[in-house]
Amino acid sequence: MPFSREIRPTIGFVDEYCQWFEGLFPEVRSFEAFKFLHLGMVSEIKRKSLPAIAKAVGLDNSQSLHHFLSTSPWSANQLRQKRLELTLQVLKGRSLILLIDETGDCKKGKSTDYVKRQYIGNVGKKENGIVAVTAYGLVDGMIIPLSFEVYKPRERLKPSDEYQTKPQIAVKMIRALQEMGFEFELVLADSLYGESQTNFVNVLDELKLPYILAIRSNHGVWLPQDQQIHEEPWQTFKRTFSNGTTEIRYMREVIYGKRHRKRYWLLTTDPETLPDNSTSFVMVAAPEVKLTEIADRYGFRTWIEYGLKQSKDALGWADFRVTEYTQIERWWEIVMSAFLMVSLFADAFNDSFPLVHQQFARHPWWNQQGGWKHLLNNLRLIIQPLICSNWLKPWLEVFTEVDPID
Questions:
Q1: Is 59 helix (H, G, I), strand (E, B) or coil?
Q2: pLDDT of amino acid 303
């Protein structure tokens, strides 16, 4: 259905990306708010509150943005479906390394849906907050947002809710992504999922997905009476990081009775002291991954931390000021969409989503390096004149007349 009036433009690359989703919004002001939020989220403003975004994008107030999150007739599920369709289109059949984790944010009080005192990863302890299970993909050195779902504690369930553990939520997301057509060459997750044999590991086996999962150091396996746990001698390997640097590390296989399809490895920087922050115990069921590649592949888990950090720090994942989950879900989905918009400027997707800003590369602050954060900084350079002019306009109204110099 055509809009009742012309849509206000923002910046070329934002308008071009958002055009893919135009059909999801029946109101012109809803589609404009959708574009303004993308523009505001990739801007340099620190806290992505609606009033701050409104000022940055040139709106008189944040009312239209709040309406967009609260009552505007659009569906977060349809937006996610469309975003994932676009992702599949640019992947062109390439498989992903799937990164599963959860992210939590502290929230005061109990008015926000699904807030409870629970473990919040970014503060490393139990706090009052909200937690979401997330799925990101890694392809050709670029991270891509895939899906998320809030964790609903038993004590905060609504009448229509069904309790699901975090591993059950993750499995549901993996099944949905596979049904859409995503292919995964490897699944990486921490010990919360590695220790969930029934709800997570067994399902990965059922789906025939290879995986490297962290497990607890006291991980237990049932053994016949005549079998014992055996530890192989330590061996060195060269750990290669994403920036190309290398470091000598150590690995040893832990054999529970006899070797099976699932193998267990202890990875560390120091076999004598086994420091907590650089020692991992992993369960491996990935026949295509060579033994010398296990640590490097498992090291890709740091990308999920990178992706979550950028979602939080750069795009404003936790900056929502709403309490109903339907609105929080909308906010998170737009953050994921803005994340994808930045990712699509990577070299890996240039043939599908060409760069439109080559002339901007003459800017002395332009960064020629790869990496998601460098792409974001370059896009921020492009929108900087518009954002700065929006901040300047109120001052032009203050100084409408300048006294002549005597």
A1: coil
A2: 73
Cite the beta strand spans of 217-367 per DSSP E.
Answer: 229-231, 235-240, 246-256, 263-268, 279-285
Sign of the alpha-carbon torsion through 308, 311, 312, 318: negative
Token readout for 182 is 């995503």
- Calculate what percentage of the chain has a pLDDT beyond 70: 92
Return the H-helix or E-strand segment holding 169: helix 166-180
Closest listed residue to residue 192, CA positions, set 77, 265, 101: 101
Query: Exposure string (b/e) for 252-287, b if CB count within 10 Å is 16 or more?
Result: bbbbbeeeeeebbbbbbeebeeeeeeebbbbbbbbe
DSSP at 144: E
Per DSSP, the three-state class of 185 is strand
Going by their DSSP bridges, the two strands 184-189 and 96-106 should be labelled as parallel
Q: Which SS3 state, helix, strand or coil, does residue 264 take? A: strand
Which pTM does this prediction carry? Answer: 0.91
Chain position carrying tokens 């005192």? 117
Residue type, 38: H
